[in-house]
Amino acid sequence: MSVSTRITSAVFSRVFTVPKEIMHKAGPQLNAVVKSVLNISKGKVKEFIVALPILILFVRELLRQRKQAQAQKQLYIIGAAAALSALGSVVIGVLLSSLAVLLVGCMVIAFPARLAAQNYPAKPVRIIIPFPPGGNTDIYARPVSAKMGELYGRQMVVDNRPGAGGSIGMQIAAAQPPDGYTLVWGTTSTHGVGPNVYKKLPYDPVRDFEPVILTVVAQNILVVHPSVPARSVKELIVLAKAKRGGLSFASSGNGTISHLAGELFKNLTGTDMVHVPYKGSSPAMVDLLSGQIDVMFDSLSSSLPQAKAGKLRALAVTGAKRFPGMKDLPTISESGLKGYEVTTWLAIWAPARTPKDIVGKLNTDINNILRQPDILRLMADNGAEPGGGSPERLGNHVNSEIAKWGAVVKAANIKVE
């Protein structure tokens, strides 16, 4: 490569985070384009005409590798860049000529990235779940991951990394290469509640991740062990006040939505129950079923089967409306605790700076998966609804959730070390 081409190559490699091997492969084309554009900017029209076949061959290569419409668009960009360079030689010379080189370079670099997105995935994809196996997130993440594997013909490697209310798994995901081969299922806890209750998270829920898609929206359920002498929300409140500090409630971890649901309940009722955090909802459920824990604000998908089997007693759901699968079960709000409403949601992210084309492909494909009858049935059976929508929808949703739960945490004075 010439000096000017090497400089341009280095700039693109750093600014656009393009791998060095791709830059090396694009070297000959980039060198020819830079040289021809610089020639015309210096008034060397004859030299440019001589170099013109190189440009034509380059465009033909694009035509061979891409669809006609997309390659034609690239051809327009080359023509525009050359025209801009010629204008630059008359008006302000080198400045606009350099801009033309940058435009053409952008085209050279963008093409391999888009081609990579078309071939994605070319190998197994790791899907991190920051909670234990068998928990609420697993119920949806594993079937959706299986559908993705069928669609792409590639293995989706589900990797449960529980601990610290989901923070450990999220931190691991944030540190992975932004190439689309690591995805993570986050929740209300990791991206809405956690940022407000933890003084310092090992990840930034906005800066460290690229939103892919909102997948699931669901309400939770208030359940107690059958040994607890309360058959309604009002009776539980009376019992908790009488046995101040004598009742315990489990959560899937400090700063999770199940923790915040319990703290909000305590704050609104003026009761005091002992919080017992676990590394996920599965181990918490084990102790609740054994009677070591009295109360839990859990997901419908996890607790509903146990309640129907008589192993737990369901008192109310946490959302704004009743669950169609148990129409006789009231909401906490209509049980006398006005204004109480807690819902949970799940979503998929990729590490920050994952190529937009790959994110877009994932978003489109997962949107289609969420509309498949068996996935819709799974959600309906567990009191959930599909999310869907664009990556921008998820990004906006996260920002609004952080603001919403920030107000709740401040009002309830909830703090987690």
> Regions with pLDDT < 50 over 5+ consecutive residues?
65-96
Number of helices in the DSSP assignment: 16
Distance between the termini: 55 Å
CA-based shape: globular
Q: Could you tell me the mean pLDDT?
A: 81
The CATH superfamily title of the largest domain: Bordetella uptake gene, domain 1
Largest sheet: 10 strands, mixed
Report the β-strand fraction as a percent range.
5-15%
If you had to describe this structure to a student in words, what would you say it looks like?
The protein has 417 residues and is α/β, with parallel strands linked by helices. The chain folds into 3 domains: 3-118; 125-217 and 347-412, 3-Layer(aba) Sandwich (D-Maltodextrin-Binding Protein, domain 2); 219-343, Periplasmic binding protein-like II (D-Maltodextrin-Binding Protein, domain 2, 3-Layer(aba) Sandwich). The protein has helices at 3-15, 20-25, 27-41, 45-65, 68-90, 94-118, 136-152, 167-174, 188-197, 233-242, 257-269, 281-290, 300-308, 356-370, 373-381, 391-412, and strands at 125-129, 156-160, 182-187, 209-224, 248-251, 274-277, 295-299, 313-317, 343-351, 384-386. Strands 1, 2, 3, 4, 5, 6, 7, 8, 9 and 10 form a 10-stranded mixed beta sheet that branches. Helix 11 links the parallel strand 5 and strand 6. Helix 1 packs across helix 3 (27-41) and helix 9 (188-197) packs across helix 16 (391-412). The longest helix has 25 residues, at 94-118. The two termini are 55 Å apart. Residues 65-96 have low confidence and may be disordered.
